[in-house]
């Protein structure tokens, strides 16, 4: 495959330089405007975010370079089944908007460990803070950086270590100087750019194929099915139905990187509408990302490596002078994911570890300084982990991302679901699941991914079912421990008892109808 680097012209370089300059202007301007309230701006954007900023920022955090790589790759090999991992998410985003968000905002917290600490005490807060840090370092920073480095290696042919070092420090710059408000402003611009460039690639691909009819007939009919039979080796329907919710609850409802935008909302209504907005945006994953891979399967059916699908389309379809836009989009999605992740990492460590445990009397200047130092340390860790992930064998990229999240998620899903829905849940149960349960879940994950890899050892169930089994074991243990231990007088979880507005009801009602129609359309082929 001809590299994009060999096709770059002075126009492409001008686009890249201009884009980076524009990002620097936006970032520096936002940083200077927020200097008066630096601590609040760095972490929660002064609680000033509206629904559009929340939705775009959450989407930017979610998309990442992995979306471009993995969705195109899985679209190339198996069709649209992977869109379940975005469309099915609306159920759990609804759970965030209507169940979790009113409690988070009523508790007036900066972090989710702080929220849990208000109910179960400081020990629980510390355990969850450390686990959240591990989760963000691995599932957000390291995987996102790895995907970005992988793409840059494909584009420019430079070694992985050079790719990740350059990328992570560029992404960290905006978080370092401006925090959540700067990242949120940049992400609105970047996601609009991503939509535009991805739409252009899809349109060019459809034109080359000969239209929707030719595309539909050019691949096996199973490519258009969202629901696969239970015997399907890659994505059986029951594995997605049972396993995906475990990761989705942890990902959308309990993850600091995703929820932080909601914590920075002006009010509950804006937070609920922002979550609704990302659910609408996730519908676009089919035409913008997965369809790229399906188109590539028709146009270039004999790729040696499916992960080359996205860049194969770009290299062959984008005219000279527009390849710079691709480099720009790679920068955009990386800054969105890594920037939001670093901001959340900094918030959790600074507020839940440094201020709570190490220096309760810290000044605002000290808090900001530690927050920024955490960003730099997070960068170094992410670089090392990205290089380690590059050594994983036996899984495609999409499965690597989903399986890593699937092993991190079960303890979080268990403790947050029980906290919100079952008042009898004990402090002992929560602490055991977060500590011993997390060690068990991560240990199984390490064995699956690095020690007894599924390409050599066939005794493993599907990784989604494995995640579900771990969830069931930990849930059973938590319930048992809650009944065995003495009943505790725990703090009541506050709830923002604000009547759901008509706008919120209409937004979610419309989305539910649309999602039901989409599943009906793409499940009958």
Automatic annotation (TrEMBL):
Bilayer topology term: Multi-pass membrane protein
InterPro entries registered for this protein in UniProt: Na/Glc_symporter_sf, Na/solute_symporter
PROSITE patterns noted in UniProt: NA_SOLUT_SYMP_3
Residues forming coiled coils: none
Residues spanning the membrane: 13-33, 54-75, 87-106, 127-152, 158-179, 191-215, 235-254, 275-300, 320-349, 370-389, 401-421, 428-451, 463-485, 506-522
Top-rank taxon: Bacteria
Subcellular location: Membrane
Keywords: Membrane, Transmembrane, Transmembrane helix
Family stated for the protein in its record: Belongs to the sodium:solute symporter (SSF) (TC 2.A.21) family.
Full protein name: SLC5 family protein
Species of the source: Olivibacter jilunii
